[in-house]
Amino acid sequence: AQSVTQPDIHITVSEGASLELRCNYSYGATPYLFWYVQSPGQGLQLLLKYFSGDTLVQGIKGFEAEFKRSQSSFNLRKPSVHWSDAAEYFCAVGTNNAGNMLTFGGGTRLMVKP
Amino acid sequence: GAGVSQSPSNKVTEKGKDVELRCDPISGHTALYWYRQSLGQGLEFLIYFQGNSAPDKSGLPSDRFSAERTGGSVSTLTIQRTQQEDSAVYLCASSRANYGYTFGSGTRLTVV
After folding, report:
1. Model pLDDT for residues B17-28, shown as the tens digit of each residue
2. Does B97 sit within 8 Å of A97, measured CB to CB?
3. Is B42 within 8 Å of A105 when comparing Cβ atoms?
4. Which helix (H) or strand (E) holds B46?
5. Burial (Cβ within 10 Å: 0-12, 13-18, ≥19) of residue A14
6. Distance between the two ends of chain B, CA-based, in angstroms?
7. Which residues of B fall below an 8 Å CB-CB distance to A?
8. pLDDT one-digit tens code per residue, A33-92
């Protein structure tokens, strides 16, 4: 069975600083990988996804993520964080396609200092 | 509809009462999922519907929980004899192949 680990429960960065949120997965074959963001009191919004091809994927709101098979990682990055990026971020792995269940990591709560 | 719609957005119920949570997925999405998110926790899978196949109920925490999906569209999650530990946000999502989930805004259930 697949699993996802987000090692950092909380991260605080200053506005304008760069950001990297870590995600490690465990799965025997090539995974489908996703990052979601959840603002307080809201549902989850898809930021970006990786299925195949270019290992650097671009998403909404200026986010990108890089799939590194050798490290079983799919870290999320943003070059300059805005105060509105404060939220909870979830990494998820799927086994086949989006019709199958996704397994989510425990989430990373991002706080942004002015 | 344009997005996944969940109702009610908030529900307060007394311990021991039954509750029904509704999810209206995006039109054309064949897959529908229910997750539970307890305070400060990640997402806990509950149940998954795919087309006309038998649902995957492996995540339901007890036999007090059940769900159905009528006509391949609207789904209802029912919790019988609610307990305080059932208090959580219940999230519904739908998808079609290779596009990831689209989540609803959730139902916040509080059992008092």
Report:
1. 999 999 999 998
2. yes
3. yes
4. strand B43-50
5. exposed
6. 33
7. 4, 30-31, 33, 35, 41-43, 45, 48, 50, 56, 91, 93, 95-106
8. 999 999 987 889 999 999 888 999 999 999 999 999 999 999 999 999 999 999 999 999
